[in-house]
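Quick one, probably user error.
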């Protein structure tokens, strides 16, 4: 019988360490009567398995199909070995568990097993807010270095008690080598502090926090990657008070609910959105609001969507256990600074905002915001890639030298590559102040530390004044590559879709530094990783007052009107809101080219149209007017379009929006509702994209189209473009794993720089 046996050596790479992979292999082998061993090495997991050929086949199949929830296999290789006659299966403890290529897992939700124990009165971890196992719990945010092992996490502060240690050492236990393993006797504890930061002597801080939330208080709550400010979303006065105390903040607040049943009372859900909400990453998902709902209108003013997440830690499970339809869970930050993540900093900086603080003594090592996602055309799209996704690698079409790419300025994130994998960092923020810049430096250091990698090439934006560019310049000894902004967007979209070949790039975003020194943003490119050609763009218009025109869309509205009508401007209602003197001054500035740089931006066109139809004259955050223009759309059946012109100017195809603006202005004068005008405007842009692609296909023969840039966070526009392009026989690539906005830019920079000899 012995001679019929076979022995195989299996080599597995990917996220396979610290996620319960060895216990999983062990238990599978036990179940099937397979002998041999499993072992962690520097590259992943190695297994030798011996048994009947049929059983071995089952074993190999199950290894790939039934992996633990947090594991992700990136390579699976097999080798024949001589039979050795083993009778048992063992977990071999590695003499050196250094995991160089092995990846650290992202932070994840509470698994079903832990959830059951959390609410089981007889369990020793009943209502313990830090329950976790190899299948769930904190990872990235608590890792201080590699190898991933308890001493290299912030759990090093908590020596395990005998019972926890037994679980940790037992290969058959769900908590075998679960580095954050803890219990109420040996692990972290929560505490409640009052508004002054003084410790409150309460028996159950979580229950007391819930009571305070029910009373309408604002409670600062320490989460996985930073602090949230929480209030009862159904309490209008409490939400209003939070808005008042978080001055200058008009952004929609995110919500957290206990489960789908609660979410359904205020938002509409399809199956794709449902599975995204319930995914282990637990991101914020943008969901359409129900027409009637029990939540405060101040949660998301002028917005048809709510950003919703389900509990991502046991602490949140306990807070939402019974009572609230939803809690507001907004990132605790001051103005445009990064999210607050240290306890003393929280009490100091949130002074005057929070009524109490629910704190715990497990340190957050890496600040990480909540991720934001949205479903478009049935597919999830990540709009902010952070908690739950980071530091999972993205596979590149080919291997390349290690590049550190630094992103641009807004929605900054960096990217470090290793062979054919790219590691995009968590969301860092808008690089406009030193706090965010310091956060960028810490993020780069941490990423290099956990990947044990020093980059060979630096990639940065072409813009000379960005802080990210400055960082690259100040890091001496490493060759640098400057990458044009919209080329990077194109490459980012191609890279995440694994496309090696050239494509037509329709890149619509706010602003990016152009090769001609002008501000680009509505671009038609042709190219790939190795290079690109600007095939066309939106007609240039001046931005009167430069940056001020981004904050005050009425300036852009005036600029587009001037472009469309010359001197004879129609008397649109929004013009009456601009003082006569200012209007004259702005027109003069544009005529004489004073502080009025030219732009082909698509984002600014959205801003201008939002002001023209009377939605908004000023914004408090980038993209606000464009967002509200999308939200205003009424009647998805609306198919009307406005006229527009595509003009060939030498090598360039120019989209002239003058006919569009003229027709749109007439609609405004006729009193057509903003929602209808907005739909027609969106339809026109999609129609224009199709015509541009038709023309470029004729001259280049390319069928592939990549849609990228922040404007493609717009679901209506993205779906319309997809529909029109696919019906025209184009193969369309959109973003899903990385954001279409500048948060995904570093990925494109990294691939372009990895292919280019640095100069
Ligand atoms: Zn668990
Ligand atoms: Zn313990
Ligand atoms: Fe951009």
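Nope, works fine. Designed sequence:
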């Amino acid at each position: 019988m012995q001679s019929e046996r076979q022995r195989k050596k299996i080599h597995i790479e990917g996220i396979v360490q610290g996620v319960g992979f060895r216990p999983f292999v062990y238990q599978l082998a036990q179940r099937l009567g397979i002998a041999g061993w499993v072992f962690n090495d520097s590259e992943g997991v190695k297994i030798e398995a011996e048994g009947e050929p049929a059983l071995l086949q089952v074993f190999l199949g199950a290894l790939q199909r039934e992996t633990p929830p947090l594991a992700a296999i990136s390579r699976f290789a097999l080798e024949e070995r001589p039979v050795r006659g083993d009778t048992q299966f063992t977990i071999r403890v590695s003499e050196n568990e250094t995991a160089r290529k092995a990846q650290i897992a992202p932070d994840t939700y509470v698994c079903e097993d832990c959830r059951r124990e959390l609410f089981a009165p007889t369990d020793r971890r009943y209502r313990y807010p830090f329950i976790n196992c190899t299948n769930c719990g904190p990872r990235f945010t608590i890792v201080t270095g590699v190898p991933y092992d308890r001493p290299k996490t912030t759990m090093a502060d908590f020596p395990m008690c005998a019972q926890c240690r037994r679980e940790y050492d037992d290969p058959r236990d769900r908590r075998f080598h679960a580095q954050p393993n803890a219990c109420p006797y040996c692990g972290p504890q929560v505490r409640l502090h009052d508004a002054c930061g003084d410790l409150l002597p309460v028996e159950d801080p979580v229950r007391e926090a819930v009571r305070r939330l029910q009373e309408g208080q604002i409670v600062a709550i320490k989460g996985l990657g930073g602090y949230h400010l929480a209030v009862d979303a159904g309490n209008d006065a409490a939400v209003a008070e939070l808005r008042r105390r978080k001055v200058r903040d008009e952004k929609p607040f995110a919500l957290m609910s206990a489960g789908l049943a609660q979410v359904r009372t205020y938002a509409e859900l399809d199956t794709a959105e449902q599975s995204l909400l319930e995914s282990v990453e637990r991101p914020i998902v943008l969901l359409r609001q129900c027409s009637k709902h029990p939540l405060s209108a101040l949660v998301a003013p002028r917005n048809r969507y709510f950003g919703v997440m389900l509990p991502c830690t046991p602490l949140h499970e306990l807070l939402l256990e019974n009572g609230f339809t939803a809690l507001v869970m907004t990132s605790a930050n001051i103005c445009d600074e990064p999210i607050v993540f240290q306890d003393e900093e929280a009490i100091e900086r949130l002074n005057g905002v929070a009524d109490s603080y629910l704190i715990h003594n497990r340190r957050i090592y890496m600040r990480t915001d909540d991720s934001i996602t949205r479903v478009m055309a049935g597919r999830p799209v990540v709009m902010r890639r952070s908690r739950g996704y980071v530091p999972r690698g993205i596979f590149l079409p080919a291997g390349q030298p290690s590049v550190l790419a630094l992103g641009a300025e807004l929605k900054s994130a960096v990217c470090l590559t290793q062979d054919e994998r790219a590691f995009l960092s968590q969301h860092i923020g808008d690089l406009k102040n030193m706090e965010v810049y310091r956060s960028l430096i810490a993020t780069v250091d941490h990423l290099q530390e956990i990947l044990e990698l020093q980059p060979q090439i630096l990639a940065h934006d072409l813009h000379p004044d960005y802080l990210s560019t400055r960082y690259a310049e100040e890091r001496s000894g490493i060759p640098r590559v400057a990458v044009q902004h919209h080329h990077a967007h194109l490459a980012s979209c191609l890279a995440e879709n694994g496309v090696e070949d050239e494509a037509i790039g329709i890149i619509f975003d706010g602003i990016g530094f152009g090769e001609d020194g002008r501000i680009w943003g509505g671009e038609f490119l042709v190219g790939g990783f190795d290079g690109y050609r600007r095939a066309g763009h939106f007609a240039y218009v001046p931005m009167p007052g430069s940056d001020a025109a981004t904050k005050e869309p009425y300036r852009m509205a005036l600029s587009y009107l001037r472009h469309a009508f010359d001197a004879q401007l129609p008397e649109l209602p929004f013009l009456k809101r601009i003082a006569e003197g200012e209007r004259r001054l702005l027109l003069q500035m544009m005529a004489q080219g004073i502080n009025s740089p030219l732009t082909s931006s698509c984002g600014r066109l959205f801003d201008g149209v939002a002001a023209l139809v009377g939605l908004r004259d000023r914004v408090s955050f980038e993209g606000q007017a464009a967002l509200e223009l999308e939200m205003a759309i009424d009647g998805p059946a609306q198919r009307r379009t406005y006229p527009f012109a595509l003009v060939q100017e030498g090598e360039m195809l120019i989209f002239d929006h003058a006919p569009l603006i003229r027709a749109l202005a007439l609609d405004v004068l006729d009193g057509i509702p903003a929602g209808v005008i907005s739909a027609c405007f969106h339809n026109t842009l999609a129609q224009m994209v199709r015509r541009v692609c038709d023309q470029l296909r004729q001259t280049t023969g390319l069928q592939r189209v990549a849609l990228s840039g922040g404007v493609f966070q717009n679901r209506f526009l993205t779906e319309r473009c997809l529909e029109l392009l696919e019906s025209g026989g184009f193969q369309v690539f959109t973003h899903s794993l990385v954001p279409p906005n500048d948060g995904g830019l570093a990925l494109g920079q990294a691939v372009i720089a990895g292919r280019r000899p640095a100069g």
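The two ends are 65 Å apart (CA to CA).
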